[in-house]
Amino acid sequence: MPLTTNWVKYVIPIPDPSKLIEERGMFWFSAGSQTTGGAGYVFWLDEVRFEKLGTVAQPRPGIFFGQELTEQAFTGSNLVVDGLLQDFNLGNGNNITLAVAPSYYDFSSSDNSVATVSELGEINVIGESGTTTITAQLAGVQALGSLELTSSGSLVAAPIPTRPAANVKSIFSDTYPNETESNFTPNFGGSTTQTTISSAGGNSVLTYANNNFTGIVFENPVDGTDLTFLHIDVYVQNAGTEIGVQIRDVGANQVVDTDVNTGLPIVDDVDFRFDVTGLTVGEWTSIDIPLGGDLASQKNNLGALILIGGPNFIFDNIYFYTE
User: Fold this and answer.
1) What is the pLDDT of residues 54-101, one digit of tens each?
2) What residues contact 317, with CB distance under 8 A and at least 6 apart?
3) Which regions of the chain are under pLDDT 50?
4) Per residue in 126-157, pLDDT tens?
5) 165-321 adopts what CATH topology?
6) Per-domain boundaries in the chain
7) Which of 46, 55, 56 lies closest to 8, judged by CA?
8) CATH classification of 17-151, choosing from 3.40.50.150, 3.30.1330.10, 2.40.37.10, 2.60.40.1080?
9) What is the pLDDT of residue 261?
10) Burial per residue of 176-209, b for 16 or more beta-carbon CB atoms within 10 angstroms, e otherwise
């Protein structure tokens, strides 16, 4: 909400007031200070209240950003209904779009023997075969968007790595201790990616769906001075799947540049970009990416992997190593 030097009334529609039967507070607020050098603001609030206006109309809820999606998932996979939005028309003629909490929705699965969906929009694939459709309503209004989900059965486990642990710095693997904690769902602005951690043959795997761009952001930079490769095991279900992997060294400032297009990382960041192609459908493919390019001379602050394309793929055994 842009603030002004005049008193302005802002109306924030409640998606479904009937859900708020034990309300203990009205709202939280925060002010971005990225452009103020960290300085705060002084502003005034008045007439803060719940109100029945009679001028909020035309509710249009949506899930998955209103898209009709089709996806395959393995038994045991856990997905999340995202893209929860609702449009309203206000009394002043303006339209407003809200990001809505999942608890406002009533989710449903057309076949609970294939997959169930919880009150929080958490989808659990339980069937070995079959197809179900995930839909939702909000205050009795059918939400735009759905997910046609087909169970692919059980996913076979990725190959067990055999490299000596002393030569490895792991990011995601059940075989090695991880060098650092990582954020696997960084929620970059404009990203449509759904990332889930599920199980295959007793091992954890990372499943990416509807990816345009996302990342794995390391909590602490990894010193790759003596490392020569990044290893990833990849599983795909669609022919022609290609994935762009960008290995970022965040430099001394340790700020992750998330720009996937310009090739001009900020300040002292460097990266190396590699296209993963030639993947075999229905099998795990082991990929070893050399830490080349600018990384050959600067890799002591490895801070993130940026992932583009796909859009659907599964990763396991993500680690840096040296021969």
Assistant:
1) 898 999 999 999 999 988 888 888 888 989 999 999 988 889 999 999
2) 158, 159, 161, 172, 173, 175, 231, 232, 233
3) 262-265
4) 999 999 999 999 999 999 999 999 998 888 89
5) Jelly Rolls (2.60.120)
6) 17-151, 165-321
7) 46
8) 2.60.40.1080
9) 58
10) bebbeebebbbebeebbbbbbebbbeebebbbbb
Output the pLDDT for position 107: 98
